[in-house]
Design goal:
Low-confidence stretches: none
Distance between the termini: 56 Å
Mean pLDDT: 77
Oligomer: single chain
Strand content: under 5%
Structural class: mainly alpha
Largest sheet: none
Order of helices and strands: H
Helix content: 40-55%
Shape: elongated
Number of helices: 1
Radius of gyration: 17 Å
Number of strands: 0
């Protein structure tokens, strides 16, 4: 049986969800390189 956290969600599922969030963020930042630039200043 898989180990469950107190909230009833398995560790494997939490890792799966967190990995997907990282992949989505990485894809977004690759498409929008200025989104994470420390010198990015939006222009009108």
């Amino acid at each position: 049986m898989k180990k469950k956290e107190e909230n009833g969600v398995s560790v494997e599922f939490q890792v799966f969800c967190f990995t997907n969030k990282i992949r989505r963020l990485t894809s977004h930042l690759e498409l929008h390189k200025k989104a994470f630039s420390p010198l990015f200043i939006p222009r009108p």
